[in-house]
UniProtKB/TrEMBL annotation:
Residues 64-99 are annotated as: Disordered. It comes from Pomacea canaliculata. One of its GO terms (molecular function) is calcium channel activity. GO terms for biological process: detection of mechanical stimulus. It is found in: Membrane. The lineage of its organism: Eukaryota, Metazoa, Spiralia, Lophotrochozoa, Mollusca. This is Polycystin domain-containing protein.
Length: 435
């Protein structure tokens, strides 16, 4: 009844006020916190009524109780063998019968209140469920998530807030109960020395005190206690860190961009998961020369389109988007290349044994390794730097792309790829915003 239906057009909820943090399907806000607190206060009243009913109804008398109420003495001792205890035994029987009757009469409600309590409990639960179904028919997914969040918060508030309050109330009520018990009527039993001697077990005055606890046992107990204290500290530290991580995760999850994943997946499908409509799909690359072909025929038309889907030339203000045209280029595009130097694979030559003469000397490119990658300086076209002319070294627009750059120069981090972890340096080529 605290929740209103969301807007039918936008689907936004009209219940949450202020900042809202969403963790999965849970929506945390000041409104849900207030609703859960009010729900706890409202449900505490019927819960206390149910507890009072079930604690104060009179139980049905059992066989032993009926026997005591009829005045039959318990067959514990033979009274005829001890005539001096007849008088005391009669008084004890009367006192026992009176105590049982007093215990049965201490509860205020008759026994049939047990059935009334169960009937009220079932009726209350069924009524709440019925009205919850009626209200939920008007809700959408947003309001349902808010109600579920308030229900979860109410559950934890009942454990960590209401139960300690009830315990504190019982603790404060205890001195009053003790003071009232001073003025209560006591049931006196006349006890003679013979009756007292018969009930109390005889003790031996010559009994020796127990031996002291061995030091080994004390050391083990002390060590066990230290372990218990340490485990308690670790447990509470773990709870604190879990709460801290939950808070950090909740704040970061609430501030995330919900469209970032779909935008990244869309660009990935355009560049690397191209369909048959692409001029040269990424899956067709088998040689290093085909990488440049893929960049020229697929990557550049996607990132820097010149024409639209109808073949019309794009205006300058329209070229800031990609080919979809929904993704806006905020900054320049960077292409980074990592290379491995050629080397003679001596291990492969040893494995073929006597057939090495048929293979001859061949150069192989080993698998990528971060510590063995190429870091040399080249001229345009991967020519040695010493053989470059002044024009190629200073006037070519792409001359910086043939120079190795470390992570300090390009401010990048290592990348976890499909096959390996790639370093943060490399041969970098930066495209402008409107290349």
């Amino acid at each position: 009844m605290f929740y209103k239906a969301e807007d039918s057009e936008t689907g936004e909820s009209a219940n949450s006020l202020g900042m809202e943090v969403k963790v999965g399907f849970l929506r945390f806000s000041l409104t849900t916190l207030w609703t859960s607190s009010v729900s706890i206060v409202i449900t505490s009243v019927p819960m206390m009524i149910f507890v009072l009913i079930f604690r104060n109804y009179r139980p049905l008398p059992g066989p032993r109780t009926k026997k005591h109420l009829k005045g039959k003495p318990p067959e514990l001792t033979n009274v005829d063998e001890k005539p001096e205890l007849k008088e005391n035994t009669g008084k004890s029987e009367e006192s026992q019968k009176d105590s049982v009757g007093t215990n049965l009469q201490s509860n205020l409600l008759p026994h049939y209140w047990c059935y009334i309590g169960w009937l009220l409990l079932v009726a209350t639960a069924a009524t709440c469920a019925f009205f919850l179904v009626l209200y939920s028919m008007q809700w959408g997914i947003t309001t349902s998530e808010e109600w579920l969040t308030s229900f979860v918060i109410s559950f934890f508030e009942s454990i960590f807030v209401m139960d300690p309050i009830k315990s504190l109330r019982s603790y404060l009520h205890m001195p009053r109960s003790i003071s009232l018990s001073v003025f209560a009527k006591f049931h006196y039993v006349h006890v003679t020395p013979l009756y007292f001697a018969d009930l109390v077990l005889p003790t031996d005055s010559t009994a020796l005190p127990p031996d002291p606890v061995p030091r080994k046992v004390l050391a083990q107990s002390r060590k066990r206690r230290l372990h218990e204290e340490k485990s308690q500290r670790v447990f509470f530290d773990l709870l604190f860190h879990i709460f801290f991580v939950f808070c950090v995760y909740s704040l970061s999850y609430g501030k995330r961009d919900v469209n970032a994943f779909f935008q990244n997946d869309h660009l990935d499908s355009l560049l690397f998961q191209s369909s048959g409509d692409a001029p040269f799909p990424f899956q067709s690359i088998t040689k290093r020369e085909e990488v440049m072909r893929w960049m020229k025929e697929t990557m550049l038309p996607v990132l820097f389109p010149r024409r639209d889907s109808l073949g019309n030339s794009l205006q300058l203000r329209e070229r800031v988007f990609t080919s979809d045209p929904t993704s806006f280029r905020v900054g320049p595009v960077r292409v980074r290349q990592l290379r491995m130097p050629f080397s003679e694979n001596l291990e492969r030559t040893r494995t073929v044994g006597g057939y090495s003469s048929l293979l001859g000397k061949r150069r192989y490119c080993p698998p990528y390794s971060m510590g063995q990658e190429e870091t040399g300086m080249y001229c345009v076209g991967w020519k040695p730097l010493a053989s470059c002319s002044y024009e190629e070294r200073n006037t070519k627009l792409s001359r910086a792309s043939w120079m190795y750059q470390s992570f300090e120069g390009i401010s990048s981090l290592p990348v976890w790829g499909t096959y390996s972890v790639y370093s943060s340096g490399g041969y970098v080529m930066d495209f402008s915003v409107n290349w």
